[in-house]
Design goal:
Layout lengths: L2 E5 L4 H12 L3 E6 L1 H5 L1 H4 L10 E5 L5 H11 L3 E4 L6 H6 L1 H22 L4 E7 L22 H20 L3 E6 L2 E2 L8 H13 L6 E3 L5 E2 L2 E2 H11 L8 E3 L5 E2 H10 L9 E3 L17 H7 L7 H17 L10
Helix pairs in contact: 1-9, 4-6, 6-7, 8-10, 8-12
Bound molecules: NADP nicotinamide-adenine-dinucleotide phosphate and guanosine-5'-diphosphate-alpha-D-mannose.
Length: 332
């Protein structure tokens, strides 16, 4: 039985990846913050249904000794490093903590693996935000990076660290350059879930408007379940390599709104209000990925399209609202 270790197991991708690895017969271990263990109902809602089938370890991305101890104890064959401060907007409010968590956390993981489990295969969660002010459209593995936020910069640093551990120390360490991927488990602060959760509230008569920033920003949106499959496939290769994972389709935030409101028979123009506070100091205007290398070498391709993704998210939020399983918080 293969053993895998996941950081960020309580996040959107961590939860879907855990399901995939369990289905593939892995023994799955996850690193969580101690506060999560103390407050499982709130902090572990995405993996609640998996408890009893996974092993959780309290450790902190800020603490090298805690990561080293966990890796030494678990001796994983594969490690998926997903934990990060992942909200781009927040990285403008607190550049320092974003850099500390994302850069040092990745460095500690790589260094601890090298010392305690050097044969372990390592996946780093890189991002299309590394392309930032894009040099070309679509972007591929050789497109130059030009990050536009502390978050993007932290991911470029993580990408470089991962490549360096591969080249300098011969570790099987790879980065996925993943474009936006969403699901009913997406955090409420990200634009897609903010839209679908508020569509459900408006439909139920519990909200009157939805305040958003730049409706003309374009993203290449896929489904998280498809994207975690790409992560796993990367670690099954004979030789380590980096891959773009994307749908190859780009849509505006406005289109997302239109389809989400359409799904419940409402017109987005009656409810969406533009609010300057949701604009970013530096925006990434158009992200569109070319995943042809992943298609060729991994056999990866997305199964869920844009409209199906929105349908899935709106349906889940409307059901949650109807069943009274807790309201989506209004995100500032
Ligand atoms: P997410 O839902 O925000 O999950 C982030 C995870 O990181 C959570 O488990 C969180 O734990 C953990 N975490 C955050 N700060 C931490 C800290 N200081 N110490 C320990 N754990 C910490 O993110 P996601 O959407 O699943 O994304 C997974 C990874 O892929 C992230 O690295 C993200 O940057 C990257 N990525 C995501 C996308 C996307 O579109 N989703 C695209 C490209 C790259 P708590 O639950 O305790 O907060
Ligand atoms: N969050 C948010 N809230 N975004 C808004 C809003 C709003 O009210 N209004 C417009 N937007 C626009 C943002 O300006 C951005 O252009 C776009 O919607 C998407 O924003 P997010 O959903 O917050 O995601 P992101 O693209 O910044 O970052 C996500 O994808 C990256 C991959 O490209 C995150 O998951 C990152 O962790 C990930 O690396």
């Amino acid at each position: 039985m293969k053993r895998a270790l996941i950081t960020g197991i309580t996040g959107q991708d961590g939860s879907y990846l855990t399901e995939l690895l369990l289905a593939e017969g892995y023994e799955v271990h996850g690193i969580v913050r101690r506060v999560a263990l103390e407050n499982p109902d709130h902090r572990m809602w995405r993996i609640r249904h998996l408890q009893g089938r996974i092993k959780l370890h309290a450790a902190s991305l800020e603490s090298y000794p805690s990561l080293f101890r966990t890796i030494q104890e678990v001796q994983p064959a594969e490690c998926y490093h997903l934990a990060a401060q992942s909200f781009v907007s927040y990285s403008f409010e607190d550049e320092f903590s974003t850099m500390n968590t994302n850069v040092n956390g990745t460095h500690y993981m790589l260094s601890a693996l090298r010392a305690a489990a050097p044969q372990c295969r390592f996946y780093f969660a890189g991002s299309s935000e590394m392309f930032g002010k894009v040099r070309e459209v679509p972007q591929h593995e050789l497109t130059a990076f030009h990050p536009r936020s502390a978050y993007g910069i932290s991911k470029v640093a993580g990408f470089d660290l991962t490549r360096n551990y591969r080249e300098a120390y011969g570790m099987f360490a790879v980065s996925g350059i993943l474009y936006n991927h969403e699901s009913p488990r997406r955090g409420f602060e990200f634009v897609t879930r903010k839209i679908t959760s508020n569509v459900a509230k408006i439909k139920a008569g519990l909200a009157m408007e939805l305040r958003l920033g730049n409706l003309d920003a374009k993203r290449d949106w896929g489904h998280s379940r498809d994207y975690v499959r790409g992560m796993w496939q990367m670690l099954q290769l004979d030789e380590p390599d980096d891959f773009v994972i994307a749908t190859g389709e780009t849509h505006t935030v406005r289109e997302f709104c239109q389809l989400a409101f359409d799904a419940v028979g409402l017109d987005y123009e009656d409810y969406v209000v533009i609010d300057r506070q949701f604009y970013r100091p530096a925006e990434v205007d158009i992200l569109l990925g070319d995943a042809s290398k992943a298609r060729r070498q991994l056999g990866w391709q997305p199964e869920v399209g844009f409209e199906e993704l929105i349908e899935d998210m709106v349906t889940a939020d409307v059901a949650q609202q109807t069943e009274g399983r807790g309201l989506a918080p209004t995100v500032a």
